[in-house]
């Protein structure tokens, strides 16, 4: 999937962004969140690209324009999440009465990398929209913005 995204952007395997992502990690996680009397306790995740298969229990939220937005579940469908900033931040709200199940595959950059746009995607008509940022620093900022 990542290769197809890079190909659609006309970024080849020799590109710095593609090489950084190849050094990153891919994790597959199977989750079962039991009913929780304190649904404000929220696990969070991040990734460049996430494929998510979830049940019909609402709970997925993404950070969009500095607000947490609920994504309605579509049972039996994959949710493909990618970010224009390079990293998508999302949380899972547990339900106080029903269990929630999901399977997620997340692809991410290494912590020591600098997140920035590919030079092939930036020019005088398409300037960078965000400053280059060390990935670990970016994550510190994002996790400080999580709901408490």
UniProtKB/TrEMBL annotation:
Segments forming a coiled coil: none
Organism classification: Eukaryota, Viridiplantae, Streptophyta, Embryophyta, Tracheophyta
UniProt cross-references to Pfam families, sorted A to Z: 2OG-FeII_Oxy (PF03171)
The protein's name in its UniProt record: 1-aminocyclopropane-1-carboxylate oxidase
Alphabetical UniProt keywords: Iron, Metal-binding
Organism: Arabidopsis thaliana
Domain Isopenicillin N synthase-like Fe(2+) 2OG dioxygenase positions: 26-82
Listed Gene3D superfamilies: B-lactam Antibiotic, Isopenicillin N Synthase, Chain
Origin superkingdom: Eukaryota
